[in-house]
């Protein structure tokens, strides 16, 4: 196995475009060239525990939901069944090392034709043929075909095990993202609820001023419109919240109609990230391990194809009893046996074996390319989320300053409206700006926590 051996000073991960690849079995290898440096050999560590990484987010409700995923999610259950199937294939391949033993029992009544020349002793007579025999055959693995088949099956089972871990990691991350998105909507609703309360107070103020002739009917209409639009936005949040709630229900293996999450406050502070994240962490990514092991399986397929150029040696033996009557069937004189080797080879097949070998080589090359692409994509995902966290943190800081400025502007507009120096349009404009800025600030908090979850997934678990 190989990964890009780059590690930036600022703690981020980086990658290059091509390089070397080797498998855990030490068979499949694509050498790096001097013109394309940057890859280094590595060993998969996908069997290491990823831990209950979601506890780093300090949310008991999320922790409880994540605990239900491993036992109830149907996508995980399917991956478990596929792993069991792959392990059964390993046992099936291993059975080829052992001899095959069978039993044959035959009881036949025959009547020979009287008009067949050469059957003088049995012509026109009826007789029986009773036989019971044990048949054994064994094929020595002279050219490594069985060994390659076993190695390919084991690599396939290891890839399925890595696929299972990849599914688990993905489902846990998907649940966390959906959960924090739902809690982000809860935060937006709390903001809108408070804003609606403030807008109602502003409407009451406008109506009072209109009653004494200080404000116009247009001011009242503007205040009512502002309130109604905000109430509509508040109601609309229910659609997305219900969808996230239903998605969480499906991930935890329960019908959507029977599941609900009451509104709650979530902590949107991402866990602390170390200054440096070494590239070796990516060795824990199960999808990288699965891709690497599929390269090993493809390499063994080349060996299987090449073994077809050599003859197969089969050792067989048969022994038992055969008689024409039941009375002396199982007696010593009825014993019979046969032992002998058979060497079977193909002299001409029109180039079929050569074509199958070339096909296996092409499949290996494709698997190696898939492996490299998986590694490069993993580095991209880490870089993307590291960049997202850094940029969103800076953006959130500026957005909080914008929120404070918008609130100050709104308060000034309300004060000036009360003393009659500005009309209500100034208040409406300030209210819209303040609400937009506050909702953006809430969304930035939610996006930071989402990026943290996706970074955990990109690293294959907790760092």
- Named CATH topology: Outer membrane efflux proteins (OEP)
Low-confidence stretches: 3-36
| Span between termini | 21 Å
Shape: elongated
Biggest sheet: strands, sense, closure? Answer: 4 strands, antiparallel
How do the strands line up in the largest sheet?
7-8-9-10
Q: Could you report the average pLDDT, rounded to the nearest whole number?
A: 85
N-to-C order of helices and strands: EEEEEEHHEEHHHEEHH
Structural domain tally: 1
Specify the CATH architecture: Up-down Bundle
Q: CATH superfamily assignment? A: Outer membrane efflux proteins (OEP)
Radius of gyration: 37 Å
Tally of DSSP β-strands: 10
Keywords: Coiled coil, Lipoprotein, Membrane, Palmitate, Transmembrane, Transmembrane beta strand
Pfam family, one: OEP
Coiled coil: 379-409
Membrane topology: Lipid-anchor
